[in-house]
Every structure is written in structure tokens, then in C-alpha cells.
Amino acid sequence: MNFARDVVDAADPSALALVERARDGRRREWRFAEVAEGAARLAGWMRARGVGRGDVVMTLVGNRPEWVMAMVACFRLGAVVLPCPEQLRPTDLARSVGVVSPTLVLADPRNRATLEAAALGCPVAYVDESGLFDGPDVAEAVTLRPLDPCLLTFTSGTAGEPKAVLHGQRYLAGQAVQAEHWLAPARGDLVWCTAASGWSKSARNVFIAPWLRGAAALLHDARFDPAARLELVERERVAVLCMAPTEYRVIAARVPLRAAPALRGLVSAGEALNPEVLRIWQQATGLPIRDGYGQTETGQLTGMPAGGEIRPGSMGRALPGTRLWIEDGELVADPATVPTFFLGYLGADGGGEAPGGPWRTGDRVREDADGFLFFEGRTDDVIISAGYRIGPFEVESALVEHPAVAEAAVVAAPDAERGSVVRAVVVLRSGFTGTPELARELQEHTKAATAPYKYPRVVEWADELPKTASGKVRRAVLRDSG
């Protein structure tokens, strides 16, 4: 198997693969012939610089065709690609490099300052350099096995540092299940998954799942703007729109909704959508938002099927062939039935093969009499904000680096638009006073220390943190007091 050969090279060369809407307003259509050639020449360029099967290539590129071709070039060589979101800070990037030891970093030139500050100690190439996509060498696609490594993505990190999740080649082919039964584009459709490059959902739904169904992908390399989002859906005649729950919430709250002429499917994943948002979208567009569920380690496990019964608030049923059950309130999966299940973790702290036996998701889920599943919350303390999964440990670590902070605990606080936001309860060192000015200073400090979406939007002061007898912070008490 090889995704580059079996899907990209095998497609009709003249068929539409990508519609590019660049940050500067440019628009360009890319045919499969152009994508295949650009990826093959980039693969040749990388091979000449020592990249081969099993080597890790990190990308730090926005939602641009160059990112897609870099991914396909890695698939072509059998290299392992680690797409990173552009929001990462130098400390995030340095930590990732320390875990995965990339042979090469491919980056957007707009991220040059961040990469230079990270001082990664490995070769970095920028996608605007001459010869990357139009060089003389064309690499042939190697033959790969389902369990050969393919893709790396990082978890959010709940009890410690984020873990590097390693997927095999089967992860790519395995997307056919959710592509058919949940995303569900038709051949020739235009699909827009708005997730930024580097996130788990973007790796599978921006272009992999659409191409498996014979559809094209829209790439929009710009910040989220509610009005612009709807205008672009109409102008580009998007057929299937895949957005984060927060994006659906914000658009419903800030922009008058209307039906789009070509739009036939709305899907969402990452966290539950409240009934009022679902009602507003369906009333305005005539379309239900079909929810789905998955994890970094598992890929997608459930989905509300296209054309089937819709249960508001449900994340659907298990995808065909996937065996799920609930044990003591927690959703559990049989890895043998999950074609996109991961191979294991990388790194000294989380290294090793994927655990054998049932996979405990750590999510509390209930099931109704008809098998529809409803997400109730995490069994651990992960915060889901605007679709981002944020581990409290990382935010707490950033806060306690500030000279004013003695201790800090981070929990979720409810928010009408983002679902939840990060709430920090801070114990100050002697000589410091909790003021609005200090709260803003801690927020800016956290933004500088880690990815900006992780900063605490709510900062509160406490004389001490509630703890167990063994000294562990009782976050449940903090959540209940918020």
C-alpha cells in the first residue's frame, strides 16, 4: 500500500484536487496531476538530503497546497510526517523535536522567527525555496505495509507532557470508513474541513478522507472570521462543511445564517454541541449538524450517519465494524475492530507499543436504548476549549514559572461560545497581591510560554489549593466552586 501511489497518482490527472484561497486573497485550483508531480519532486528533493523510510519529517506550514504536498511526499517515501500547528511556541517545538528527532523540518517562511528562537538543531527548509517542488529528481512511491509507520500527532497531555502518538499506514486507508459513513461527500464535491494543519482532525479530514471519496478539498489559509466563513461556503459552492463546535457556536451567535445553494452536509467533532445551536443551524440551513467522536490514538470511532436518524446532542453510533461498549460509565473500544488504531507512543516518558486488550478512552459516555451515544465529560481533567484539547499540567507549569506564583491549578470553566475556557486558580508568593494587572501579566506570560490558545481566560486568587491527603490537587473541588 502507498497513499501517494494508490490515491493521488491513481486519480484522474485532470480532476480537481484542491481549491486554494491564500491569505493574500489569491485563488487557485490544483489538479491531481499538479499535486502528484509537486509531491513526487519534493520527495526526490528530500531523498537527496537523506530522508528515507521511517525518518521523521516535521511540518510547520499553514493550510496551503505546500503542506498537502509535503504530507503526500512523506507518504510517498515511507517517511513519518509530524504536522505541527503554527500556533506552537519555541518551547513547544523544541520539546517535540526532543521526542521525535526529525531528520528535516519543512516550514512556512512566516514561521522563521519562531523556528530560529527554538534552535532545533536539525535541518530546516522553507517551502518558498527554489527546487523543492520543481526539482529534477522524482521519487517513486515505495511499497509499504499496513503497520509501517506513517504519521505522528501529539496528545494534549493531561497528567504530564503531551505524548507523541504514532500511526501506521493503515491509518490512511482506514479513513475510508468515516469518509463513507460520516463525512460522506460524493464524487466531485468540494469539502471544507476548517481545522488548522497540525491537528488530528486536519490530518484526516482536510484532504485524506475527501480524496478517498473522489472529492476535492478547500484550503483557506486565513484566520477564522464568521461572516467570511459563510461567504466563502457560498462562493466556492462547498458541499460538505466540517467545523469545530466553537465555530458553529460563534457563527450562530454573530452572523445571520442562511442556506447555501450547494451545501448538503454539516459535520462536527471535538465536543458536544448544545441543542440551541443545533436548532439555529437546522432552522436556517435545513441541514442537521452531524456529530462524531474520536481520539488522537484511535481516529474516529463514532458518527451520526448521513441520511440517517439524527439525535440532537448525540455523537452518533459506532462506525460500521467498530466495537464499542460502556464499562462503569466509560467508553471502551476493541482495538482489533478499529482500522485507525495507533501503533504506540514515542519518547522516553510515553514510549512503547499501544496497549493490548480493550482501549479505555477516559471519556464518560451514556448510551440510549437505540445505541446512540452521548458524551458526558472526561474521566481525567483535560479541558476542551473551542475544539482544542488542553492539558492542565502544561498551563500550570507555565504559570508557576512566573516569579509571583507559588502554586496554580487549572480547570475548565463553562463558556457560551467556546464550550469551556481555561480557568486558573493561583496561590501567590509572599509580597504579591492579586490584581487585574497581575492577572493580565500572567495571561501574557502563559501565551509567551506555550501555544496562545492555552492561556487562562479566567484568573482567580486563592490562599491555598484543595488537596488530597497525599498532596494531589483536588480539581473536582475547584470545578464545582467555579
From TrEMBL:
Matches recorded under SUPFAM superfamilies: Acetyl-CoA synthetase-like (SSF56801)
Domain AMP-binding enzyme C-terminal: 394-472
EC number: 6.2.1.1
InterPro entries: AMP-bd_C, AMP-bd_C_sf, AMP-dep_synth/lig_dom, ANL_N_sf, Mitochondrial_ACSM
Chain ranges of the AMP-dependent synthetase/ligase domain: 12-330
Pfam family, one: AMP-binding
Keywords per UniProt: ATP-binding, Ligase, Nucleotide-binding
Protein name as annotated: Acetyl-CoA synthetase
